[in-house]
Fold each of these.
Amino acid sequence: MHNGILYLAGQSLKELMLPVIGSELIVNLIMTLICIVILFLLVATSALVFTLGERKVCAWIQVRIGPNRVGPWGLLQSTADMLKLLTKEDIIPHGIDRWLWVLSPILIFIPAAMVYALFPFDDGVIFADVNIGLFLLIAISSQSVLPFLMGGYASNSKYAMLGGMRTVAQMLSYEIPMVIALMGIVMITGSLKMSAIVEAQSEVWFIFLQPIAFFIFLVTALVESNRPPFNMVEGESEIIAGPFTEYTGMRWALFFLAEFANLLSIGILTTTLFLGGWQGPDFLPTQLWFWIKAFLMVIVYQWIGWTFPRTRMDTILSFGWKVLLPLALVNLLLTGFGIYIFRWLL
Amino acid sequence: MAQTEKFVLNMGPQHPSTHGVLQVQVELDGENIIGAKPVMGYLHRGIEKLMESRTYQQCVPFTDRLDYVSAMNNNLGFCMAVEKLAGIEVPERAQYIRTICCELNRIASHHVFIGSLTNDLGSATGMIYAFRDREKILDLFNIICGARMTCHYIRIGGVIADAQDEFIRKTEEFIDYVPQMLDEYDRLFTGNEIFQKRMQGTSVISQEDALRFGMSGPNIRASGIPYDIRKIDKYGVYGDLDFDIPVGRTGDNWDRYMIRIGEIAESAKIIRQCLDRMPDGPFMAKVPKVLKPAKGDVYHRVENTRGELGFYIVSDGTTKPYRVHIHRPSFINLQALDHMCRGMVLADSVTAFATIDPLMGEVDC
């Protein structure tokens, strides 16, 4: 029933190993380990791609050329950046809460990488296709609030503190409209399972059935992943770099690794939930469709981010509570009526 | 019951948004500003004192370093003051070239305003677009005098070099480009909802307050007072030229931004008229190598990009000024910062600071 390239590759690997090792349990264990390694590689690669990609896209929008010195077309820029960050002095400021401060960049990376386990990359290729997939995904991603607060609180800096508080305020208030907007999809699909959500879009994508939800998701995803124009966390003109202010070198790089991982994951999430996931016309393999859509969405997010000025904190909050939340509720109601009428027509 | 504590946030002198080295001590209650106290002096070089030990001609380069993004206007202010003191008549061609350069520099300076404002609002894209267009003007200065920012082009008695055909042709090209440029800005930020929302109704300065603070330049015009030295004093050839002064209504950040956009268009109008009317003739008056103005004092003011720039010079009959005092518009406009920030949120303090458009070289002098 599944015929994606990745799925077939996985199956044939399994069949190759089974006669050699003998025990199915151990084979499954090895496959799990391979999957974990692949997921982490994916997250690391996304950072590698986006350190260059973000700067190139930003440069195109800003009528500049972008990095073009290191390697052909600046392709080795990410390597150069990484080397630079590795050789930086690791400054630990005075008066910090040591444990929280050290843990924050590590903890921020965990939810960012963990959500990748729940993305259906291809037909049948999903690491953990649990039946509460979407719920789990939102639950995991909301954990990323805490490290921001930890970093902000522990840094012993007023800028960091303000940034940390802002993050909590904005992330918590935008989670609610996001969840309610996504409820519409769950109602149509009748399942929280990620693979079921993709399969439900085999005929018509949810962007056409749920345009309001798509709009709400577009905004909330930007807020949740701290992308501009909602990057209040590092509103560099007033609070310098928010919770990241006091971090240097690799600790700082971990924050950005998480940010780039988040950027790719909101691109993938939009693709999965609204653009039919890996499905597409037959002339291209499904795997390719998935990445085309995901990267197009990433570019859309970058495009929005690099065009608009930053919003103000109070505007963000009032917009979230007074506009997006009622809109999401209205969407929920409309979806309910829509489903009822659809069933009645049949 | 939860208790909140007021705290003071030191913004600057090392901070991404204080363009220059200004420290603002912002007193905060959460994100709300209770007060903002500008602390200046980090760029003080003692220019007024330095001028006392230089001859009049040697003083001119110092004025470049006052408001270094509109150096031509500063040159003009000082040179006109000395000319008034020594009774030097400037040839007409020189006056027209001076006006062209000053207005070009006004546009370039407003580019910096737009660039730093949009950058402070979190849109680095706006800054790049503004600086791309500013580059065109700096290239024009490069053609006419070889320098780009601190030009030292306007000298006592005229200008140091004649305007070549290449300069005139390229200036015309730039003036033709201005409407297209402004249209692009309109599409990029003037029409942007987030931009408007952050600018409109924030940091209002009423007419009375603007007068009370003694503000000048675009900042007072944004509050609805058509105060422009170019119109009042009609110095140089401004009396013969036909141009309007954009005037705002409410005196909020938005008005201060729109005034500058309007001024770019007006400056372009002035430059076009000057190019059409520029006569042939000498570009420098006969000025003695050793300039010894008679005993006395003089005050001359010009409309700098940021407001009323005045030079008060006391001469004791020697080759060096006895005393120079500079009335710097940025310094005076900056007083309003506290008034503008009160009751706003932290993000607005940066916008307020950017729309006053002070230049630390001029504030500290």
Amino acid sequence: MTPAQWKEKLFLVRDSFFSSLAGIQTGGLEALELLYFGRKGDLSLLLRDLKDFPLEERKALGALGNEVKGAMAAKLAEKKGGPGAGKADIKTPFSDLTMAGYPFPKGSLHPLTVTINRLTEAFIKLGFSMADASLIEEDYYNFEALNFPPDHPAREMQDTFYLDLKDPSGKDLLLRTHTSTVEIHTLKDRRPPLRVFHPGRVFRCEAVDASHSFAFHQIEGFYVDKNVSMADLRWTVDAFIKDLFGSSVAVRFMPSYFPFVEPGAEVEMSCVFCKGHSGKCPVCKGSGWIEVLGAGILHPNVMRATGYEPRQWGGFAFGAGIERFAMLLFGISDMRVFYENDLRILKQL
Amino acid sequence: MKILYSWLSDFIAAPLAPEELQAKLGRIGLKTESISKTGAAFEGVTVGRILKIEKHPNADKLSLCDVDSGSGVTRVVCGAKNIAEGQKILFARVGAKLAGGELKKAKIRGVESEGMICSAPELGLPGDGSASLNNSFAGPRPFEAPVKNAGAKEDGSGILVLPENSPVGADAKTLFEKPDLLLEIEMLPNLAYCLSHYAVARELCAFYNLPLKKPVMPELTPPPASGPKGPDKVGQAGGGVKTPAPAPVTIEEPGLCARYSGIVIKNIPPVPTPPQMAARLAAMGSKAKGNLLIDVSNYVMYELGQPVHCFDLNKLSGPEVKVRRAKPGETLKTIDGKTLKLDEDMLVIADREKPAALAGVMGGADSAVSDATTAILIESAWFEPSAVRRASKKAGIKSESSYRFERGVDPELQLCAALRVAQLILAEVPGASLEQISDVNPVKYVPAAVEADPARINAILGTEIPEQDIFACLKAISPSIKDEKPWTFYPPSYRRDIESAWDLAEEVARYSGYDVIPVRSSMKMMSASVTPAFEAAGELRARLSALGFSEVYNYDFISLKELQNCLLNEAAAISLKNPLSSDFQFLRPSLVTGLLKALDYNINRGRNSAAIFETGTVYSKSGAQGKEEICCSGLMFGSFPAELFWKGGADSADLYHLKGVMDYAFSGKSGFRFEKPKSAPAYFQPGAVLEMKLGAGTAGFLGLLNSTAVVNSGLKDVKIYYFEILLSALARSRKADFWQRVSQVKPVSAYPAIWRDLSVVLEDKYEWAELEREVVKTQDLARVELIDVYKGKNIDGNLRSVTIRFTFSSMEKTLTDSEINGHMAAILEKLSKKFSAKLRS
């Protein structure tokens, strides 16, 4: 036997001892001790073999042998709970610190819930109160009072699901196509000043693909009082977006159109994902700007429909698609992911 | 909407660079969605001729072609099958700049290729390239479309074969339209005033003070006494251009057709569409028909925004056309081959016999212009927008024409557009004669007066824009405005959308740039709150996810099969009138269908355990009304915890897990308890379901899912434990104020608590809840827990052994052994008396 072979044998004995030790309860300890440390034990026999080596090698191998023997004895004592416990290896009283912790059940909130909660928090900070609203809606609240006259092409922006139920005026009930219905209900039910928001599900009759879904979520806030201006709207939207994406983000308004506001604006924020440096940013497509919200001053026709004189009372509204925010936040590029419910994805949250 | 850069630039005296154009359009609300190149954007390609074709020595599918490129003969390797000796082709020399980059010398299967015979895609041309060809040096219609699909290059497309008369050696660029840019602009429904090249140019010029180039129109005026004319006028026109007779038009419904300009042109020979017009239409994605009489109306619509229709005059049954409501039973075969059933809600253009066009939507096939047409009636009208929209929806036809009419066409554009059509036709066929012209305009456009108060505009915007700047904006849009206070703004005919100070405020903001609006608040402070339902849902979600449940979101729509699978009542389910498919026909009456679907999805992806939940709306019919209820439901399947780990296995999930989860979910809710239900949803297994109560009301159910429902839903016959909570019950019982919601803590004893275990054997029929109820009132008893249940060896079949731990504690003293012994004896006596329980030996 060469010294290298002896060493190898020694480590083998040690490793098999440790794994046997870890596997047994207190009952088998004596047997194990006899198997390794007994007169004819594996370790004892191996140490006895040392005598066949030349003196120099015997010294070095002997020292190694004793070290291993000490470690094994200490582990054994530790398991026995005897006085030698932990003395040789004070670093850990556990067999293997790298083993996994016990798996406490880990649940998760859906990314859209996380997003809705965060957006809700942002609205609350700005003094907006949440209102409830139903999903089944009358044409009047979903369209007409919001300045979508019958047979107006603006209705084409929102393909609608109709139900096998009728409203009091005999029109088909529908599933709301936007959260703006909450404006009409609130304005009719309560008196200004009003600062209200509402998150919820909306429906559009369009086929599902990576960027479309027949069911999705919006969040919408509005403020009604005397002397409300676009400047108030800009301040609010600016604070809202900065709360979500940090104070260094730039926010700009561009002209746009929603039937229930005038003037209307589309709100864009500077791309926080590429900071405008990369021409190939997949989020902003290299433009440096990301569309995040629609906004505007409540249309005088909306004020009149809800019983307010538009020269006296005014307001603003702004709203956003929640999936859009969630996609930005969680790096999800396909809207279908939200409704597939793959636990391999959901459990990452 | 598509805008061709060169076409737009025709109307701007100082054209803008593309980037600047895009920025300027965006700033006034015309957002560019995409920009693409059209036309020939290549270099180093000439017309060549294939002199000789040989087989490639080393490849079956390749050929060697000798190409005369005008400056010598070059050998080229080619993979296309539609090559032939003598063909005129496009030859790219080495170094040419093509769509895919610079062409390099290449050795293909051992043979050097010194250039390439090009296909349309290789040159960056759309389709087979024929549409982009400008046949400027060819005679009328000389050009046959290239042989399509006759052979394939390696990328599947054939080479582009040129007309025989193409001159060898000519720069290929001269054969094609000049490179151009196609902008796709998002046209929101309010932008009726931007639905043509000219209109977009007009908008740009107004807002950026650029010089607008107006199209030059022929100086033709309709006869002064225009209006509906009697039939006697027909055929009286002398054919002279200077004093044409009125075209025979009668408007019966001036409310729906405010204006109808008609021009009759006769003696028209077959005439091809001029190349530039064809190329522009092709770039717009509107494939030119090759017949000028057909293409010119599209061209003018894209140019000016006025939909125009040309009838074949000889196919109309004279003597006049009428704009009238359709009669019941009338039909119309449209140009696209549909036969429409018409009704009185639909406006038609009719000849003496029958409708010839659905007004503003589409023309009829019977009166359509064809290659045989020699005389036409040009129609350029103003139809009432909502009437066109209704007709278009009813007919199921959306056209470029209905698109514009629905949004509102400029009511002063009709005659001008008709003249433009005539002008373009007469320019191509000087022999044709303009015979009749008419402009029937029963309802004249009268601009509404809009009060323009600069203070009001500034108040809406929250700005302090100087009056003269506001005036400059108003004047840019409506040059007729007078600087006399109070300002009155008369919108131009194409800006009928401007009705109020709010509309003017938007114009001022667009004119100044939206950045003019300051970021400044003058708003009141207000306190904020969320709704009880949102809070209750949030608390449930937090608790369920803390116990290992993952939240899912399902669609609200389910199929009839899913309803039936889960034994749900389809009569009470609300259905959609216009579902996307039968998979999504009903509004879900329960979350169970979606949760089972989500479970199945995950099982199919390798999971063998899952704990999921969803908070969502469920729907049902309540009489004639729809009822919505928010539920929080979930299920457990497999083992718990879900993962195996080194210390040992996991438990199989069972009902008591879920009961524990619900205990946790409802902890702190006073009045919460489980009861055996009188009735429960059908998807629960009878006898394995419990009702959850909050006070007197139902808060939900939990139990084992009915195996029929599970198997129906496509899952194996597995045990799935399911719960559903009605959020309204939680929200209702939720106290509004935080201080009321939290319960005050109870004091604990300063003296030690002492526990005793008691094992008794009793009959199975006695339930734990009965036992507990019997002993719970014992004096000094602080806690009573069931800690073991045993059936089996030494216990008779109808009996079970239960071990109960009693913990005693007093607020006043340390309890003595004898006191506790007394309590335990009393307990045992109660249990023996009531349940014949016997102490287990």
